[in-house]
Amino acid sequence: MIGVLLMAYGGPNNLDEVEPYLLDVRGFRPTSAEIIHEVRERYREIGGRSPILEQTRAQAEALEAALNADGEKFRVFVGMRHWHPYIKDTLAEMTAARVEKTVGLVMAPHYSRMSIGAYYKKVNEAESGLEIATIERWHLLPGYLDALAGRVRTALERFPAEVRAEVPVIFTAHSLPERICEWNDPYPDELNATVAAVMERLGNQPHTFAFQSAAISNEPWLGPDAGEVIARYAAEGRKHILLTPIGFVCEHVEVLYDVDIVFKQQAQALGVQLERIEMLNTAPQMIDGLAQLVQQTAQGKKWL
């Protein structure tokens, strides 16, 4: 049996878990009561919990079905970087299940040392003894790009027909500290490559890229922020905007709060119709593409 370690960030399952989860995210650094309260309130506003675990498990089930369409050879396990089930615990489960070979896959398409690199650091720290083939990026995976383009086309239909061709698309991804640029980190370039590849599929729709969800921190983070871009478009007289997260593939706090609450409230105050795409979740094109990538990686082939 070949195992797939499907990894995602993790999130609290209830409001009581917000503080220990946040401490895990922050490396157990001293965290003020104000920050803990602010983060807890964000989760309260989206229903008191994060849906990321159930969303990732649904993706795992879909991926396992796609991988085993021609026979049962793969089993997909879910591990979280910052909450239960932790990556180390999932690796222990895989060892107990007598997995012979493992493919690691993070449900984030773009590589950064601070993101994808941090997941595989957790894998290495677990010292599971499993043979693990790693997938570090899939930002140009055709199924992912096709699914994104399809989501944009569908979302544009929510705008009046006479303005659709002029609706600007703001592609977004999670911001990271500016210091990653000192490492020649590929993250910004990979995001730009994804935008260019999606636009090849969409044609001449006006578009731009912005970051979102910068952490509460004293150091500078990559910009521009999507909120700044929304304000700029509004000042130019734009009344319709489509926001398209490309760095996230399911709903969680950065989408349900940062986009659906903060950015939409901002847009409403500016007299702008702001819509966002439906997240990819278990989009068949993306899942089928990832299944092919996992199979190629398991066979020892390189992709990208």
How many domain modules? Answer: 2
Largest sheet: 4 strands, parallel
Shape: globular
Radius of gyration, CA atoms, in whole angstroms: 19 Å
CATH class of the largest domain: Alpha Beta
Strands ordered across the widest β-sheet: 2-1-3-4
Sequence stretches where pLDDT stays below 50 over 5 or more residues:
none
Helix and strand string, N-terminal first?
EHHHEHEHEHEHEHEHHEH
Short characterization:
The protein has 304 residues and is of the alpha/beta class. It has helices spanning 18-25, 33-45, 52-67, 87-96, 116-126, 142-156, 187-202, 226-235, 253-256, 258-269, 284-298, and strands spanning 2-8, 74-80, 101-106, 132-135, 169-174, 207-212, 240-245, 273-276. The longest helix has 16 residues, at 52-67.
Would you give an account of this structure?
This protein has 304 residues and is α/β, with parallel strands linked by helices. The protein folds into two domains: 2-138 and 282-298, Rossmann fold, CATH 3.40.50.1400; 142-276, Rossmann fold, CATH 3.40.50.1400. It has eleven helices and eight strands. A four-stranded parallel beta sheet has the order 2-1-3-4, sandwiched between helices. Strands 6-5-7-8 form a four-stranded parallel beta sheet, sandwiched between helices. The longest helix is centred in the first third of the chain and has 16 residues, at 52-67. The model has no long low-confidence stretch (mean pLDDT 96).
Provide the descriptors you would attach to this structure in a database record:
304 residues; Rossmann fold; four-stranded parallel sheet; 15% strand; single chain; 2 domains; alpha/beta
